[in-house]
Amino acid sequence: MKRIPYITVLGCIIIAILISACGEKDIKNNLIIGNKSSEIISNIAIQRIGKTEIRGSNLKQNQHCYFDMGVQKNCTYKVEFEDKNNKSTLSNEFTCDFNKEGIVDINVRKDNNGKWAVVLN
Question: PROSITE patterns given for it (predicted)?
Fold first, then answer.
């Protein structure tokens, strides 16, 4: 009989944790990656050199994906993506800062010669 109160308390704690974890957070997206080409880009990723990847996928023309990068100062990144032929393209390394107030805008473009470029705005 004494197990029932413990199980009830444990159940309430688990429910409270789930509600707080799944609730809406005050997240500000401070990185925008946009597709400025006429092709669909799939499996787009931004990688902090030496850290894990953050992914988006299937960006159509003039479509964007948004990320919350937190606050990071003077870090180096690369952007990698696949085009419609599943050919992987890796950008040059670039350094930028992410903060809570500013937004970093990265655009993926394709020139008339079919060459891809990743432009940091």
Answer: PROKAR_LIPOPROTEIN
In this structure, the dihedral spanned by the alpha carbons of residues 30, 31, 36 and 42, taken in order and rounded to 10 degrees, is -140
25 dihedral zone (left: phi>0; alpha: psi -120 to 50; beta): beta
**Structural domain boundaries in the chain:** 27-120
Residue 78 structure tokens:
């690369």
Helices (H) and strands (E) in the chain, counts: 1, 9
Task: Quote the DSSP letter at residue 113.
Answer: T
CATH number given to 27-120? 2.60.40.2890
Bridge partners, residue 88, by sequence: 82
Cα–Cα distance, 97 to 55 (Å, whole number): 19
What whole-number distance in Å separates Cα of residue 48 and Cα of residue 63? 23
pLDDT digits (tens, 9 = 90+) for 11-70: 657 665 645 444 444 557 788 888 888 888 877 888 888 777 676 666 777 788 888 888
For residue 45, give the nearest of 106, 109, 121 by alpha carbon: 106
